[in-house]
Amino acid sequence: MKPPVELAKTRDFSETISDTFTFVKQNIKPLFKAFFVFSGFFLVAGTISAVFFQMKMVNLANGVMAPGPVANLDYGSSFFERFGIEYFITILLYMITLTVLKVTTFSYVAIYKEKGNLPPTTEEVWGYIKYYFWRILGASFVSNILLVIGFVFCFIPGVYLAPIFALIFPIIVFENASFGYAFNRCFTLIKDNWWLTFGILLVTWIIIYACITAITLPAALFNVIGMVMHPQKGTNLSMTASVLTVVLQHLCLVFLIIPIVTISLCYFNLTESKEGTNLLERISKLGEIKPENDLPAEEY
User: Fold this and answer.
1) Residues 14/265, Cβ–Cβ less than 8 Å
2) Which residue, 106, 138, 185, 217, has most beta carbons within 10 Å?
3) Torsional class of 67: left (φ above 0), alpha (ψ -120 to 50), beta (otherwise)
4) Band of the pLDDT at 70, cuts 50, 70, 90?
5) What parts of the sequence cross the membrane (predicted)?
6) Cβ proximity of 123 and 191 under 8 Å
7) What residue segments make up the domains of the chain, in order of their start?
8) Global pTM?
């Protein structure tokens, strides 16, 4: 059996990806427990809201694509009337779920390191979540806006900023930092290591995307096969397959734990290679005399 993953150390490309999956495998029970305890309510609520929204969209699409006059679609309806409150509730719950997922995973990793590579309890993780939730939510909102702006302007700025902004979140949690400090520090840490960090995150996301696609693709293909096998019915989407696809997509959010762990290891790799913080901690502890409090007092 492999020893517990040592977080604070330098890693190359393959070691970072390998240690990511090793860490998740070694901590799969307590890590997934924390995810479902703190994200479960928002995950279920978001899934239910998304199902109702998807049902509405399928009915709308089937009405538009049905044979006959195009009077099935009310072109005078507003955006809100067409999509309904389900759309906004789904987006809101999705954002909250992602934020709780980030805070939970980063908090788990932080406490794991503080406890000397031991899994934290749900009570310990909850303490961190209460402290960092709003900070991570605000950081997510601002960084997402900047990323959208970057992708709109020639796409390349968005690609450049994506791995940099990914480091904001571990900096906030691991260093108890403000957004402003984390924003400046992420540029400092990734200097001369942008390509390595980008490559690690890209490969990890490709693996995760492939896993999610493998789970959700069969339900999506059911719609395509149904339209090909029954062309006389026109372009008619299957309600069952569409709803199943949405449910599976939301359940697959658990896979996002993996890239968050990868980002954490990238952070430790960058801090160790530039600052050697873990090495300095070990050097500072050399010569320390720890009293043996469990020994009986000496009698004279």
Assistant:
1) no
2) 106
3) beta
4) very low
5) 35-55, 87-111, 132-153, 159-183, 195-221, 241-268
6) no
7) 16-67+79-274
8) 0.85
